[in-house]
Design brief:
133 residues, seven-stranded antiparallel beta sheet
């Protein structure tokens, strides 16, 4: 399997716990990921709807508030494999680093999702920093 992989990060001037409250809540994805207009969670199943009307079923693999790690996979036949990982790492008091990594087969899907993830991190940063001031 030839996976495509991409990773983006951003430094956020907000406490890691405050950023995690948004990024780690699987039902709040519409608040910070562009193009996601609906998000429904039922246990470890999450279904998101994009602004184009595409529905993506996902399985939540990890939602760990101690590590501040959220990991999921998209379970559509168009993917041989997909895993997305969001980490919120405490940087120093009142600042953190949010990291979004995507691995996918076909490889092109990693680039597509990765582009959205880069913009999502910027929105996450703006939203969390605005809440702190």
């Amino acid at each position: 399997m030839a996976l495509g992989a991409i990773r983006h990060h951003v430094v956020i001037d907000a406490p890691a716990d405050a950023v995690w409250a948004l990024a780690g809540d699987p039902s709040r994805l519409t608040e910070w990921f562009p193009g996601i207009i609906d998000c429904r969670v039922d246990g470890t199943a999450r279904t998101i709807t994009t602004s184009t009307g595409l529905t993506l079923p996902e399985t939540i693999l990890v939602n760990d508030p101690v590590l501040r790690r959220f990991q999921y996979e998209i379970t559509l036949p168009m993917f041989s494999f997909h895993r997305g990982t969001i980490d919120v790492l405490e940087f120093d008091f009142g600042r953190c680093v949010a990291v979004y990594a995507t691995e996918a087969d076909p490889r092109a899907m990693a680039m597509l999702i990765g582009a959205g993830a880069a913009r999502a991190l910027e929105i996450l940063k703006h939203t969390c920093e605005k809440e702190q001031h």
